[in-house]
Amino acid sequence: xxSPKVARLREAIVSYARFHPDASDTANGILGWWLPATGFDxxxxxxxxxxxxxxxxxxxxxxxxxxxSLLYSVAPVDE
Length: 79
Hints:
Elements: H1 4-19, E1 24-25, H2 27-34, H3 44-56, E2 60-64, E3 70-74
Antiparallel strand pairs: 1-3, 2-3
Helix pairs in contact: 1-3
């Protein structure tokens, strides 16, 4: 079962993705831009696991960049 922090983090990312379907960013960018300014001060510890979960669920997709970091973007919705 998810902790309340994990659930809130997941919902914040999914909500941002829903309203910004063309968004893409690295984990650091997601932390700085996608998440509300307050309430996610310790999200760094949980972020990578939540992002991996959302990629597995098909909500986000991850693309490797030349520096080996990952660029996360909103996965296209099947029509």
